[in-house]
Design brief:
alpha/beta; Aldehyde Dehydrogenase, Chain A, domain 1; 2 domains; 7-stranded mixed sheet; 14 helices; 20% strand; binds 2-aminohexanedioic acid
C-alpha cells in the first residue's frame, strides 16, 4: 500500500526514503525508522538532517525568499493554485501514506488532504486581497496608508496527528504572502511530510521557483532547537503540545522573534436539558473518538444537565459499543490505533488515575488489538466523574479517546466548568434555546473562553475559512482562515507628504 502510494506520486526512489532497510536501520543515528501503528511494524527508514544540512536548508530558503517576494502576490497565487490541483490529483495516495504512518482511518486521512486543497483555494483568493488600510492624516497635504509586506522564511513545526494539513494552513498562506517555508515535521510522520513537501515544491519548481518549500527532518537537539533559535526565521509557527509550545515561545521570545502557537486543548461540550440528544450523541461520538481521540480539538469533557445525563450516556455507551475498531485502511473502520506504545501507556495511566480518583469507566478503557493486528489499539472510554464532580485527571490533555462526564444544574455553573481548565481551544454547546446559545457566545466574553465556540456541533472538524486556534495554554495563535494571513507578513505604515511644507503632527512648532 505504502509502496504503491509512493509510486503513484513518483516518490519510490526519493533519496530520503528507504523502504527495504527498515528493520536494521535503528543503529544509524541519521536514520529514523517509521512504524505502522496498526501493526507496530517498521515500514520505512527516513534519512534525517544533521547540523550541516540543516544550515544549508535554511540558507537556501532565505535566498529563495529574496526572489519570491519580488513576484506579485496574484502571480504567487497562481503557483499555489497549481499546487492545490496537484494535491487534488494525489489525494488518495497522500491519504494512504497518512493511514500507513499515523493510523488515521482512510476517510479522515483523505479528508485531511481535502483540508489542504481547501486552504490552497482560500490562499489563491487571498492573493488578490492582501488589503491594507488607508487612513486620513491630521496634516494637510499628507496621506497615510498601511501595507503588508513579505516577512521572510517561515519555520513551521507540526505534530503527527495532522501531518499534511497543518503544514498547508501555514505554507499556502505564507506562499501567497511572499514567504518561503521551512518545515520541521513530527518524527512520527516524516513520510507524509516528504510526500507533501515534494509535491508542492515540484510544482513550484516547474513554475521556476526553487526552494519555496524546504523540509528539515531531525531530532529536537539537532534540528528543532536550532530552528527555533535561528534568527534567519522571523516567525516560527508551531502546532503541538503545550510543553513544546512553551519551549518554542521562550526561545523565540528571547531573540524577539515572532511565534504563532497552536497547542493543546481540553475541549468540553455542554449539553443542556433541552438539547436534541440524538443529534448531540452523534456529534459527540465523532468529536470524542474520531482520529482515536488524537485531535487537538477532540472532545475530552462532557458537561451534561443532570436531568438528561442518563439518557445521553445510554445513547453514547451504545454507540461506543458498536463503533468498529480496526485496520484504519479497511472500509467501515471508524477507530484506528493510537500512534505508538507511549500513547497507549498514557491512555492506560489516565484510565487508572480516573479510577483511583473515584471515576467510573462506563465503557472501554482496555488495550485491545483486533484480530490479526498487533498495533497500538485501545477501546475508547467514557468515564463518569464521581458525584462530587471532582476528577483531577480530566484537567490534563491525554492524547487518547477518553471522555470524562460531569453534571450540572445551573447553566452558569456549566460555563464555569467548561472554562476551568488551563487550555482554551475548542468548546461546544448543545441546546435548542437561542438564549442559552447566545449566553455561551456572549459578546462580553463571559461565555466560552475558547478560540472556537460551536453551537449544536462537536468540538472538532473546523472548516478552514475561520481563524483556527485558542487562548490560554493553547498559545493564542491563529492559523488558517479569516485574517490569519497577517501573521505571515509585516505591516508598514506609510505617511506621504505632498504639501511642499514640513508640518509636524500634534501641532508641534519647531522653528
Ligand atoms: C489539530 O488537531 O491539530 O478542527 C488540528 C479540526 C481539524 C484540525 C485539527 N480541522 O478538528
Amino acid at each position: 500500500m505504502l509502496r504503491n502510494a509512493l509510486n503513484a506520486m513518483g516518490l519510490s526512489s526519493h533519496p530520503r526514503i528507504n523502504l527495504d532497510l527498515a528493520a536494521n536501520a535503528a543503529s544509524d543515528a541519521l536514520l529514523e525508522v517509521v512504524s505502522n501503528p496498526a501493526t507496530g511494524k517498521a515500514i520505512a527508514a527516513v534519512k534525517l538532517d544533521d547540523e550541516r544540512s540543516y544550515y544549508e536548508a535554511i540558507g537556501r530558503s532565505a535566498a529563495a525568499f529574496k526572489r519570491w517576494r519580488e513576484i506579485p502576490a496574484p502571480v504567487r497565487g497562481q503557483v499555489v493554485r497549481a499546487i492545490g490541483d496537484e494535491f487534488r490529483k494525489h489525494k488518495q495516495s497522500i491519504g494512504a501514506i497518512i493511514t500507513a504512518e499515523v493510523g488515521k482511518i482512510t476517510s479522515e486521512a483523505v479528508g485531511e488532504v481535502q483540508e489542504t486543497i481547501d486552504i490552497a483555494d482560500f490562499a489563491v483568493g487571498l492573493s488578490r486581497q492582501l488589503y491594507g488600510l488607508t487612513m486620513p492624516s491630521e496634516r494637510p497635504g499628507h496621506a497615510m496608508r498601511e501595507q503588508w509586506l513579505p516577512l521572510g522564511p517561515i519555520g513551521v513545526i507540526s505534530a503527527f496527528n495532522f501531518p499534511n494539513a497543518v503544514w498547508a494552513w501555514n505554507a499556502m498562506l505564507a506562499a501567497v504572502c511572499g514567504d518561503t517555508v521551512v518545515w520541521k515535521p513530527s518524527l512520527l510522520a516524516p513520510l507524509t511530510a516528504i510526500a507533501t513537501n515534494t509535491i508542492a515544491q515540484r510544482v513550484a519548481s516547474s513554475w521556476g521557483h526553487e526552494d519555496l518549500f524546504t523540509l528539515v527532518i531531525g531530532r529536537d537537539e539537532v534540528v528543532g532547537e536550532r530552528l527555533i533559535a535561528d534568527t534567519r526565521l522571523p516567525l516560527i509557527s508551531a502546532t503541538g503540545s503545550c510543553r513544546m509550545g512553551k519551549r518554542v515561545g521562550e526561545v523565540v521570545a528571547k531573540r524577539l522573534g515572532r511565534s504563532l502557537l497552536e497547542l493543546g486543548g481540553n475541549n468540553a461540550a455542554i449539553v443542556h436539558e433541552d438539547a436534541d440528544l440524538d443529534l448531540a450523541a452523534r456529534a459527540i461520538l465523532f468529536a470524542a473518538v474520531g482520529t482515536c481521540g488524537q485531535r487537538c480539538t477532540t472532545t475530552r469533557r462532557l458537561i451534561v444537565h443532570e436531568k438528561v445525563v442518563d439518557a445521553l450516556l445510554s445513547k453514547l455507551v451504545k454507540a461506543y459499543s458498536s463503533v468498529r475498531i480496526g485496520d484504519p485502511g479497511a472500509e467501515g473502520t471508524l477507530v484506528g490505533p493510537l500512534v505508538n506504545a507511549r500513547a497507549v501507556e498514557g491512555f492506560s495511566a489516565a484510565i487508572a488515575a480516573a479510577r483511583t480518583q473515584g471515576g467510573t469507566v462506563l465503557v472501554g478503557g482496555e488495550k485491545d488489538a483486533p484480530a490479526g493486528l498487533s498495533g497500538y489499539f485501545v477501546q475508547p472510554a467514557i468515564v463518569r466523574a464521581p458525584a462530587s464532580n471532582k476528577l483531577p485527571i480530566a484537567n490534563e490533555e491525554t492524547f487518547a479517546p477518553i471522555l470524562y462526564v460531569f453534571t450540572f444544574r445551573d447553566p452558569e455553573e456549566a460555563i464555569e466548568m467548561q472554562n476551568s481548565v488551563a487550555q482554551g481551544l475548542s468548546s461546544a454547546i448543545f441546546t435548542r434555546s437561542a438564549a442559552l446559545a447566545e449566553r455561551f457566545l456572549s459578546p462580553a466574553g463571559t461565555g466560552s473562553d475558547c478560540g472556537l465556540a460551536y453551537v449544536n456541533m462537536g468540538t472538532s472538524g473546523a472548516e478552514i475559512g475561520g481563524a483556527f486556534g485558542g487562548e490560554k495554554e493553547t498559545g493564542g495563535g491563529r492559523e488558517s482562515g479569516s485574517d490569519s494571513w497577517k501573521a505571515y507578513m509585516r505591516r508598514q505604515t506609510c505617511s506621504i507628504n505632498f504639501s511642499g511644507k514640513i508640518e509636524l503632527a500634534q501641532g508641534i512648532r519647531f522653528e
